Amino acid sequence: MKEINTSEFDTHVLENDGIVLVDFSATWCGPCKMQKPVLEQMEDQLEIYSVDVDQSPELAGRYNVNAVPSLMLFKGGVLKNTLVGFQAKEVILEEVEKLK
Fold first, then answer.
1. Which of 15, 37, 38, 70 can pair with 24 through a Cys bridge, CB separation 3.0 to 4.6 Å?
2. Which InterPro entries match (predicted)?
3. Exactly one of 4, 19, 32, 68 is catalytic; which is it?
């Protein structure tokens, strides 16, 4: 899972024609640490990027990230869904399927 910053976000997420999951998280967040291995299991099925809200506060502000982890699903560069808090792999994949 590649960590991206504000300058890379447009290229990797907004200019992407496919489905992309962005994990807005923080190093100090316990549930974020639990979420990471779940997301790593899905990397072969889905394009996933991580944004550290402390390193990229303007990006977190742009998407109104008020809690971490916040998982945002984009399709064709458009935000389609946000899942807040720890999410099981099955829940995430179910939401991805709805976008296909």
1. 70
2. Thioredoxin, Thioredoxin-like_sf, Thioredoxin_CS, Thioredoxin_domain
3. 32
